[in-house]
Amino acid sequence: MFDAQPAPLHDHTLLTPGPTPIHPRAMQALARGMLGHMDPEVFALNGEIQADLREMYGTAPETFTALLAGTGSLGMEAGFSNLVESGDEVLVCANGSFGQRMAEMAERYGARVRLVTAPLGEAIRVEDVAARLDGKVKMVAVVHGETSTGVLNPVPAIAELVRGSGALFTVDSVTTAGMEPFRMQEWGVDYTYTGSQKCLSAPPGVAPIAVSDRAFARFAARRTPPPLWYADLGGLRDYWVNRSYHHTVPVNLHFAFHAALRAALDEGLGARQARVKQVGQAVVDTLAPLGFTPYVKRPEDRLPTVLALRLPEGFDDAGVRAALRRREISVTGGLGPTAGVIWRLGLMGESARPAPYLRLMAALEDLLGEKHLAARFEEHLEGVTA
Ligand SMILES: *Cc1c(COP(=O)(O)O)cnc(C)c1O
């Protein structure tokens, strides 16, 4: 099930919900010498990235894909700056900090935001979206996997509502694309983005985007140019399609991203989904007897790539994580209202492997005086693999 991996080039064990450990092939690609951003070889490599992104996102054959020179948040911001105009009604689903970030950005670009929320740790309800959606809404925006709480939102069901409403559909696929099913064309998604350092285990610094023809038509019909010049879709198309200069792209990050994305597609998206499930289940089963319980109540609402676990009663969150950090193991706690209440264990990209979690279990065995924790993890892993 788990393909053989070259030895990691570093010792630190990152179990955080991003960044994830750099894939060895991406690390190697970073060592390549510099080439110009207008070099034919770079354009050829960009073309391969675009084709591979269409496969990863499940787009129509000719859908525009590109890398933005920035992190996932730039992918988010570019969607609002290009596709929203002042006064537009935008329905934002916000059940965590990244949904809230979307709402804040949409407002800064002049949108009238209709907020659909859900209690922390619960998914957005499709009925609540239906109740706020009408012919005036120009865009619906949702985070597929809410990293702050480990919740998976029902994107295919929301997509069904949005289709035929006249609204554009923007989906944040930062914690899903490349690791979990994502079908841009089938669902009718108009704009999506992720960050290189999440599910693809490339270095941070580029944000892969995909833009539907409908979104491009909306962009072309703008009354005024988008306020954010740097991520202007027209300028991006000039570079990525017409091969003319817009700005200097981070060439080395393109090399590394290309290698990481190829590695993901070579492994197969199905195999990646399977190892997320297997490692995640083994972690849950191993930690359950210690009192760790899933934070998200409904199993269908659980985001496989960010495992949110409620800590046992009286557990010394800060102390244990600091002790783990001294052993070069990074684990992330909760955010805001869930600080001290949960751990968020990353199962994106190269962190969804047995080896890093075995290191965590061995360290916890020692720190908590829990005998055989590492051995139990290995047993559970075999149990779910069989
Ligand atoms: C990490 C993340 C982002 C923001 O990405 P940055 O790379 O930190 O800018 C946006 N949305 C979600 C769901 C994320 O997990």
From TrEMBL:
Residues 36-334 form the Aminotransferase class V domain. Keywords: Aminotransferase, Pyridoxal phosphate, Transferase. InterPro entries: Aminotrans_V_dom, PyrdxlP-dep_Trfase, PyrdxlP-dep_Trfase_major, PyrdxlP-dep_Trfase_small, SP_NH2Trfase/AEP_transaminase. GO terms for molecular function: transaminase activity. Gene3D superfamilies: Aspartate Aminotransferase, domain 1 (3.90.1150.10), Type I PLP-dependent aspartate aminotransferase-like (Major domain) (3.40.640.10). CDD domains: AGAT_like. The keyword Transferase applies. Residues 1-21 are annotated as: Disordered. It comes from the Bacteria. Its cofactor is pyridoxal 5'-phosphate. Belongs to the class-V pyridoxal-phosphate-dependent aminotransferase family. This is Alanine--glyoxylate aminotransferase family protein.
